[in-house]
Amino acid sequence: MTGTVVVALERFLPDARRIADMLGADTIPYGPDVFREAFCRYRRIVALMSAGIAVRGIAPLLADKWRDPAVVVVGPDLRYAVPVVGGHHGANDLARELARLGIEPVITTATETRGRESVERIAARSGCDIVNRDSTRAVNAAVLDADVPLYAIAGPGIVVAGPEVSLLVRKGEYVVGVGCRKDVPAADVTRAVGEAFREAGVAPAEVLVYATTEKKRGEAGLLAAVADLGGNLVFLDDETLNAEAAPSPSRASLIGLAGVAEPAALAVSKRKELVFAKQTYGSVTVAIAR
């Protein structure tokens, strides 16, 4: 999904085209399946119509706030722009853009109404993705009450974070799960990951993060390899790994885990889709999810 679209009732199309020209957007006349089409094709939607029509149209399509398009309703009188879906995920910014046409943005997300930045806005401003998305509710709530510290780690480094700490890393599509034997050389890890990339058709620049078990915190070779790859390494506890179904058999059962490479990749991934099943390269196992 890319770009922006303005959806409008037939009688409002002249105003819709004016909005679209300012945004560099497409225009689609309103119809029975217009929102289903727009949800599949666009990241941002301006609905020029009454809020009731828009809400009834988009409600059956909502699935995941991290993947749903940002939706802003603009009233027929062009007075107000109201984000109704995805305020923290582009709708607030879209409403503010409409102010250039004299349309007043009506922002209702709590952090913005208090003049504070949400985790999602910080991530967007920094060009980052949020690894542990479930953390944002608690962190944003804390932001409302006090200044929340922001730590920048240039890396390589080890971060042990609790459930109410949001981890922001560079944008990327894939999570690489890595398992290895004790005292593995860095060159073995780099070689294994590189081979997995070639077989899966994935480029290092497309990686969101690398992940493994917390039992590997002391593996100098693994740390050095991920640093050489220019990535960030996340260590996951046993409970998190065992909560994921491991599609492939694993010798990790000897240390009380259902697996390492595949569960680690799935646990951190956005879509929970395994795109490259676990492969073993000497003393290193690699799996890739998105």
Provide structural commentary.
By secondary structure, this protein is α/β, with parallel strands linked by helices. 32% of the residues lie in helices and 22% in strands. The chain has 11 helices and 13 strands. It is elongated, with a radius of gyration of 22 Å.
Brief overview, please?
With 290 residues, the chain is α/β, with parallel strands linked by helices. The chain is 32% helix and 22% strand. The chain has eleven helices and 13 strands.
Order of strands, widest sheet: 2-1-3-4-5-6
Please, what is the average pLDDT? 88
Contiguous uncertain segments of 5+ residues: none
**Structural Rg:** 22 Å
Largest sheet: 6 strands, mixed
Strand elements, count? 13
Helix-strand pattern: EHEHEHEEHEHHEHEEHEHEHHEE
The helix content is 25-40%
Strand content: 15-25%
Any idea what the shape is?
A: elongated
Oligomer: single chain
Structural class: alpha/beta
The tally of helices reads 11
Whole-Å distance between the termini? 16 Å
Question: Topology of this structure?
Answer:
Layout lengths: L3 E5 L4 H11 L2 E4 L4 H8 L2 E5 L2 H8 L11 E5 L5 E6 L5 H7 L6 E2 L4 H4 L5 H8 L1 E3 L5 H10 L22 E3 L3 E7 L5 H15 L6 E7 L6 H9 L4 E4 L1 H5 L18 H8 L5 E8 L2 E6 L1
Parallel strand pairs: 1-2, 1-3, 3-4, 5-6, 9-10, 10-11
Antiparallel strand pairs: 4-5, 7-8, 9-13, 12-13
